[in-house]
Amino acid sequence: MNNSHKYNGTYAHTLATAVMALTIIAAVIFTSCARQQYSRPTITVSIQPQKYLLEKIVGDKWDVKCLLSNGANPESYDPSLTHLLNLENSKAYFRMGNIPFESAIINKVHNNNPALKLYNNSEGISLITGTHSHGSGQRDEEPDPHTWTSVVNARKIASNMYNAMVDLDPDNKGYYADNLRSLLTELDALQDTIAAGLADKRGTAFVVWHPSLSYFARDYGLTQISLSPEGKEASIGMLQETIDDAKAHDAKVMFFQKDIDSRQAQVANEQIGATLVNINPLSYHWDKEMLNIADALSK
Ligand SMILES: [Zn+2]
């Protein structure tokens, strides 16, 4: 009886240990599955500067995916299948606002994911017209899409992103509000630095190939002279007219986007004689790009 009891006791103990071990294993398996299944929700944005700003607002609560990779040209961008699938698995798509590929993407994806929420990050920004035609030939009406190359606009973009987050995830409103406040403080400091550097440069001109800095020029009272407003090779006659214009304005800086702009820019600059400065307004490191542009102009 004693023996039997002892035997049963040992058996029960072994069983309990086995059950406990299985429970732990099951818990581990369940947790890792759960982690995969319930990973962070995703928001898709169009360009890297949006990712930079949005990540500062959503922190580690959301995964921010970007359609346009570094170095790609937004004017000729055709989204890959992977990009479109990412978008279909997203809770929301934040368009920059007026980049030509954005409307095409929304039409493509909306049929497959009608629940996808859409937000325009440039809402409320006073748009510049007359700089772009993007092949439609209607240069006077088309809004300039490069709203993000402006610290003033970035404040508005950040607020728009915050409003969208409160709409998507109202439970974390306080968290997003704290992050927005920190971001706006950073943007104010950036704005102060740039404005101080360019204070005595109002009225001066700079040259670009593609007119990607219209909003930056507006913020600081500068004149942007674009060698190729149509986004392609300019005719010899038109190019010469712009070169003469740049010389008349005594432009000291030419900005060049090496992945996108034509080599014609460098040839034209042999006549203009400006300092050639490489920029990438589509870089993730948006704040550094703004400083890089301001720094070149402040010399
Ligand atoms: Zn453009």
UniProtKB/TrEMBL annotation:
Transmembrane segments: 12-30
Pfam families: ZnuA
UniProt keyword terms in alphabetical order: Membrane, Signal, Transmembrane, Transmembrane helix, Transport
PROSITE patterns according to UniProt: PROKAR_LIPOPROTEIN
Ranges in a coiled coil: none
Family membership noted in the UniProt record: Belongs to the bacterial solute-binding protein 9 family.
Protein name: Zinc ABC transporter substrate-binding protein
